[in-house]
Structure formats: C-alpha cells, structure tokens
Specification:
alpha/beta; six-stranded mixed β-sheet; binds zinc ion; about 650 residues; 23 helices; elongated; binds adenosine-5'-diphosphate; five-stranded mixed β-sheet
Length: about 650
C-alpha cells in the first residue's frame, strides 16, 4: 500500500476536474440503433437534424416531442440534444433514402455531411493545456524551493540541501593537491587525526574541536582544503553553501539547519562544510528600525543551538569558509563553536610556484615554460587564478594549433586574466590614439622616474576588455607600505591626466578610473591610516555595517575633505613638474607607443636610462624590516591588492559619464 501523500490529493482533484469536464460536454443521452430502426424514426418524422459522417456513421437528433417514444425516458432526463447514432450502408444509400423521405414530406429536418471528428485529437486539445498548466505550476513550485533535490521539490523545502560525498566516492582530493598553505595544512591535518583516532585525544581528557573556520580571499583553496580533509580522513563529506539555508519562506532556514545536523549525526564521523558562511552568519542586527532579516537571524540562532547541542565527541566536525570574518556574528566565533580560525592567504612567490606545479601536471608544456618567471609575473593571483591561467594557456595554444603549450601562451593567458581580451578591432581615431599614448606614457614615465612607484612591465594602447590602454606594473610583495610609497604611487597614477594637461592642453574623460583610485586612496590614507599633517595618528575606520553615523564630527569631515584635496593637488602638481622636466623622454615614449602599440620596460629603459631606484629601495626596505620586526602586530589593515600586477586602465564605459 503506497503511503498517502499530499500530492495524491492534487492528482485526485485534477482527475475529478477532468471527468467533470468531459461528462459535461456529452451530457445528453445518445443511443446506438440499427439502420432499420433509424429509417423507421425518420419515416415517423421524429428526426429534426441528421449528420452523416464520412465513415458512414450517422447521427440523428430527435425532436423533443418524440424523445419519450425513442428513449423511453422523460425529456427532462435526457439532456438538451438527445441523439441516436447508427451506421449507414453507404453515403449514397443514405442520401437516396433521405431524398425520398423528403419528397414524400415525411422528413423535413436538416441534413449535413461532415468529416468524422477525431476523438483522439479532441481529447488531446482539451487535455494538453491542462497538463501544460499543471506542469508549469509544478516547475515553479520546484524552482521556488531552489531546485529541490530529487522528487517532490515543493514538499521538501525544509530539508537540508547539503550535497553528500560518501567515502570512497567521487572525492579523490588529497593534501597533495593543495599546494602551499603550509600552516593551514598543518592545522587542518590535525583535524584529520581527530577524525581518524579520536581516542588519542579524548583519553588525555582533551576535547575534539567542533569546528574550524577557514578565512581568506576567494579562490585561495578553502574548499579544496576541506575536500582534502574529507578525502584523507576517508569520511563522508557534506558540502553546502551558506546561502542554501536562506529561502523566501519563513522558518525554512532553521529547519534546514536542523535537518543537516540530523543527517550529519547519522553519518558520523563526518565533515560538514559550509561555504560562504557569512550569508547566514552575519552579525545579528543591532538596528531594530531596519527590520533586520528575521529569517536569517532565526537560521543563525538555529545554527548556534545545533553547534552547542551536539557533544564535542560525536564525530561531526564543521568546517566553514568565509572571506569576511569581520562581519560574522561574535557568537559564532566563540570557543566551543568555531574554535579555530585558519587563515588561508593569497600565495606568495614560492607558494605560487607550488600551485603552478600542481596545475601544470596535466598540461603538456614544452621546455620554454619557466615556472619561476610565471610565478614572478603573477603576484596577487590566487590559486584559482593560477589554475585559470594554466587552463587558459592550454586553450590559447590549442587555438593556435600547437602541440605543446609554450611560454608565450602562458604570458598571454596572464595578460588576458588581468586585463581582459584584446580588442584590436575597436575603432580609435588618430587623435584618440595620440591622447591615449600621451596618457599612458605619462604613467609609464612617472613610474620609472619616481623612487617608490611600482616598476613597469609593459604599456599598451591596444584596447583590452573595457580599457582603452593599460600599463602593467610589478609591485613588490610587501606587507607594509610607507607613506612615501603611497604618495609616489598616487603621483604616478595622476601622471596620465597630468600628461594630457601638459602636452595636449585639454583634459579628457579617460582619466576617470585613475581619479577614482587616487581619491579612494587619499581618503584611506587620511581617514583610516592617520597619514595627514592635520589629522595625524587617527583612524576613523568603522566596520559596523549598520551604523550610518560617522565616527567623527562635521568639522573633522570637512577637514578630511580638505586634506584629501590638498594631498591630491600636491601630487598632481608634482606629476606635472616631473613630466615637464622630462618632456623629451615622455614625448619619445608616447611616439614609440603610437608606433609599436606595446612597449616593454626595456624600451623605457632606453629612453630614460637604467632605473636607479630599484635596487636601493629594495635594500632599504629589507634593512628596515630586519631592524624592527613587529611582533604580533600587523601595521596596515590594507590587504595586498587582489591583482597585484597593477593595471592602470582607462575604462571606456566611463568615458560618457561626466566627471564631477
Ligand atoms: P575558495 O577558497 O574560494 O573555496 P577553492 O578551494 O574553491 O577556493 O579553489 C578553487 C580552485 O582553485 C581549486 O579547485 C583549485 O583548482 C585552485 N586552487 C586554489 N588554491 C589552490 C592551492 N593552494 N593549490 C592548488 N590549487 C588551488
Ligand atoms: Zn590612466
């Protein structure tokens, strides 16, 4: 006996509707008779309308007055159009017979000949729209519940949507596939130990941690690490994303959390991995007037309760990943929940080499590929970016029909990932090209001439992605940045506009990206880093999302604005000054750019001579760092920039927007 289920009700209702629909149509009585009987009725003048079909069936409608004689029933019981049907020997004989009766004035009804109705298509046309509507409705219900896993989407909203990877299943990720991340790996290897041999720890009275939080920018291998834990410990692995809990229906999130933990406990020992936990784990609203997201808070509360609820030795370990640990609710980070935070940072030079090692394994490369060079060319790339570079390089090589992937393919892939696709077809006028060249040459010259600016790799005026021209720099990978370095960078960024102003005499919209960056940086330096003279050593950084109050007074706000203006103006003037001092060099560079479209550091070196600063500044920095190791404190909160190969690009989309 199949279990009763709400969907049965729907089926029954649908069937009843269908039945009603059809019975309604043919609600009048009909009767099959012999041809003789039919002729009899016609002769008696009972019939008022006859339809002959092409397959020789005949339908005859009976006059209401005679219904009782034919059907032996009351006329109000037989419906509107009572009818008899019969089969004529042939159409001709039917025609002759009717003609004769008409002539003898016994039959005066109407006669028509029709094609036989195809009942199959009638049913089809009647049923199809209904089936279609029901299908559409089911589809939307399923969509609303977010795809639903398996059957009965709507009826499963409260179920957790975690994907389960069983042991011995498809996960074959091991720690070997995770390159770099030595410290994170070590921490997380311990978790594998916990899962494999819990007694070793519990015997000594220790408690097994319930969860660990993997913190780091996207694409650095957090998911990969979690998978590796599952692969190595050989336990089931539940994977889901924080946003999977969130649903438009109230109460669904909490019930999904409950369901997830129930499932996990059944499979213990196991690992539950929640990606992007900030989707549910954001700090609960402090500002009641905002209304808050009650549903999300309920979900978070349930998560907290569940994490408290299961014993620490039950063998379920929760790993979660986020790149915004600062927005997480403090209650989540409390000991006893996610007691461990494991930082997964962007890979440094050596780690990038290792990551390349992992991802180059499946790729057929020739001997020109230099992993060393590639790692140096990709500062700020995450593991995922590097995986992407390798893949992209293989695609580029394939496009050119090569047997092996070579060095140039990799360099092209890197460029492409930083700057987007080259658009050689984009139309730029001669005048525009000159403007872009002068602008880019401005950046290039300044970054060559300024002590702390990032050294240039190459400049191009070939449109790429949304940019009209671009310059690549190779920044030092440093953890702290001095004020001088920031100012020099600012000056070089303003170099584009300064060059336009100096050598063309008009400024253009092309510098919007530069200005935006410079403005943001200046505000950061003054309001957060305490780097201005009038507001020294003050940090007004406020990471409270819900507070709209500035943590400073109106007067300070004005002061900040003023200081920002002052700082940017100073650097702009400085850029103009340096550029006019090196006017010939700059103009030569611009001419070279127009001619060659792409120029490299070597070309710049030929014009301006060797860059005097490189070695010295690096030396000084190194010495500085050796002198005073800052133990335990990070000086700037400034994360290394995402794409550390800085791209100074002029976006075309912005060209139309007015600058303010
Ligand atoms: P996230 O930190 O956003 O969870 P993932 O773990 O999903 O990042 O990483 C995405 C992809 O990037 C991985 O599938 C892997 O191919 C690659 N990757 C990232 N970090 C590393 C690493 N340290 N070693 C090897 N591959 C990595
Ligand atoms: Zn620019």
């Amino acid at each position: 006996m199949p279990r009763f289920n709400i969907s049965w009700m729907y089926m029954i209702i649908a069937l009843m509707l269908l039945a009603l629909y059809f019975t309604n149509e043919n609600s009048s009585v009909s009767k099959t008779t012999s041809y003789d009987e039919f002729q009899q009725y016609v002769r008696s003048g009972y019939v008022n309308k006859i339809i002959g079909y092409d397959d020789n069936t005949v339908e005859a409608y009976i006059k209401p007055y005679f219904v009782k004689d034919v059907f032996k029933e009351d006329s109000n019981r037989v419906g509107k159009n009572p009818m008899i049907s019969t089969e004529a020997p042939s159409r001709e004989s039917l025609g002759e017979f009717l003609q004769k009766e008409r002539d003898e004035a016994r039959f005066n009804g109407s006669v028509s000949y029709e094609k036989k109705k195809d009942y199959f298509s009638v049913i089809l046309w009647n049923v199809l729209p209904i089936v279609f509507l029901i299908g559409l409705w089911l589809f939307f219900m399923r969509r609303m519940s977010g795809g639903g896993n398996g059957a009965g989407g709507v009826f499963n909203v409260g179920k957790s949507k975690a994907q389960l990877f069983e042991k011995g299943g498809s996960i074959k990720v091991t720690f070997k596939d995770v390159a770099g991340l030595a410290e994170a790996k070590q921490e997380i290897e311990e978790i594998v130990e916990f899962l494999k041999e819990p007694q070793k720890y519990t015997n000594l009275g220790g408690k097994i941690p319930k969860g660990a939080l993997l913190v780091g920018p996207p694409g650095t291998g957090k998911t990969l690490l979690a998978k590796a834990v599952a692969g190595e410990a050989n336990v089931p692995f539940f994977s889901l994303s924080g946003s999977d809990f969130v649903e438009m229906f109230v109460g669904v999130g909490a019930s999904r959390v409950r369901d997830l933990f129930k499932q996990a406990k059944e499979k213990a020992p196991c690992i539950v991995f929640i990606d992007e936990i900030d989707a549910v784990g954001r700090a609960r609203g402090k500002n009641p007037s905002m209304g808050g997201n009650d549903e999300r808070e309920n979900t978070l509360n349930q998560l907290l309760t569940e994490m408290d609820g299961f014993g620490s030795n039950s063998g379920v370990i929760i790993l979660a990943a986020t790149n915004r640990v600062d927005v997480l609710d403090k209650a989540l980070l409390r000991a006893g929940r996610f007691d461990r935070q494991i930082h997964v940072d962007l890979p440094d030079l050596n780690e990038r080499k290792e990551v390349f090692g992992v991802h180059l394994r499946p790729i057929k490369i020739d001997e020109s590929v230099d992993v060393d060079l590639l790692s140096r060319q990709t500062p700020g790339f995450s593991g995922a970016d590097i995986a992407n570079v390798c893949n992209e390089a293989a695609l580029i090589a394939a496009r050119h029909g090569k047997k092996f992937v070579d060095k140039q393919d990799f360099l092209d892939a890197v460029d492409r990932i930083i700057g987007g696709l080259e658009k050689k077809s984009k139309i730029t006028t001669e005048e525009e090209r000159r403007t872009i060249a002068l602008h880019e040459a401005g950046h290039a010259s300044l970054s060559w001439l300024l002590e702390h600016a990032n050294p240039l790799i190459k400049v191009t005026i070939v449109p790429r992605g949304r940019a009209l021209g671009a310059a690549w720099y190779l920044p030092e990978e440093r953890q702290i940045t001095t004020k001088e370095q920031m100012l020099d960078e600012m000056c070089a960024t303003l170099g584009g506009r300064a060059a336009e102003n100096l050598f063309i005499g008009r400024i253009s919209t092309g510098a919007m990206n530069d200005l935006e960056r410079v403005t943001k940086q200046a505000y950061g330096m003054i309001a957060y880093l305490g780097m201005s003279d009038k507001l020294p050593n003050l940090c007004y950084y406020n990471n409270d999302e819900y507070s709209f109050n500035r943590p400073y007074s109106e007067r300070t706000a004005e002061l900040i604005d003023e200081e920002v203006k002052l700082m940017i103006n100073e650097q702009y003037e400085r850029a103009k000054q340096i550029l006019s001092m090196h006017k010939e060099g700059h103009n030569k560079l611009a001419a070279l750019l127009i001619e060659k479209e792409v120029i490299f550091a070597e070309d710049v070196e030929q014009i301006f001579g060797k860059r005097v600063w490189t070695s010295r500044s690096e030396e000084i920095m190194a010495a500085e760092l050796r002198k005073k190791p800052e133990i335990g404190t990070k000086i700037t909160e400034e994360k290394p920039k995402k794409s550390a190969i800085e791209l100074n690009s002029e976006s075309e989309a912005e060209v139309k927007k007015p600058l303010n």
